[in-house]
Amino acid sequence: MNGEVTTIIIDNDDIIRIKEITTFTKTQNTAYTYAKRSFDIICALVGCLILLPLMIVVKILYCLSGDFDTIFYEQERIGKDGKLFKLYKFRTMEKDADEKLFKYLQENEQANIEYKRNKKLKNDPRITKVGKILRKCSLDEFPQLINCLFGQMSVIGNRPYLPREQEDMENYYYDIIKTKPGITGYWQISGRSDVSFKKRLELEQFYSNNYSLSLDIKIFFKTFSVVLFGRGAE
Questions:
Q1: CA 152 remoteness from chain centre
Q2: Residue 208 has what pLDDT?
């Protein structure tokens, strides 16, 4: 059989240079991973101390409003590498919220269109009065510090998506699951509920492919201004 054989010659200097770059990158990634995990543990431990009195306040507010159900909400979410985990939040919706959403979307065509576009409803009828306060102040996310302590989430990362959203995530899914989901992230500081589902995926794909210590620091501190002014919170 006739054919051409192409030989690529790399001299010793180039081989050494490639090895040096690879070793540097691995060292850099390892340092970043350890620094981020240490930060997550510290934040989670401090946050859990704040969580205890906050739980009492939330429970009292719910009882005063005539709602005596549990204040916590557990839901299966997609984690790093596609592994599923139980996410913890303060409950902000009525009981059996998923069933009520399905029924509501069937009866309201406009809401159905909005939900398909954003995976959220701007005026969600399932949200309780106490839930509106918790969401406005971003306090509903506080119990996710427990997930951080367990190593299922990070303080900074992408949104923890629902398993049913995987199909809608299309090929963005494979980039997004490269990193742990986070309590706050690039999407949250870029508009949150004001951003469409497609734009959110683009932002989170960018984070997964460009994460760094400097970007995490920027996101962390910008989160405070977003929470303080309630920008994009629903």
A1: 11
A2: 94
Residue 234: its pLDDT value, please? Answer: 53
Query: What is the rounded distance in angstroms from the CA atom of residue 73 to the CA atom of residue 91?
Result: 5
**CA neighbours closer than 13 Å in the CB half-sphere of residue 133:** 7
Q: What is the pLDDT of residue 12?
A: 53
225 Cβ neighbours under 8 A, 6+ residues apart: 231
Mean pLDDT of the chain: 85
**Which residue type occupies 108?**
N
Placement of tokens 């065509």 in the chain: 109
Amino acid (one-letter) located at 202: E
- Which two three-digit tokens encode residue 203? 């932002």
How many whole angstroms separate alpha carbon 60 and alpha carbon 64? 6
| One-character DSSP codes across 138-164 | TGGGTTHHHHHHHTS-EEESB----GG
Q: How far apart are the first and last CA of the chain?
A: 67
Q: What is the mean pLDDT of residues 154-166?
A: 95
How far is 224 from 183, CA to CA, in rounded Å?
A: 13
- The answer to whether the beta carbons of residues 141 and 183 sit under 8 Å apart is yes
Provide the phi-psi class of 7: left if phi over 0, else alpha when psi is between -120 and 50, else beta: beta
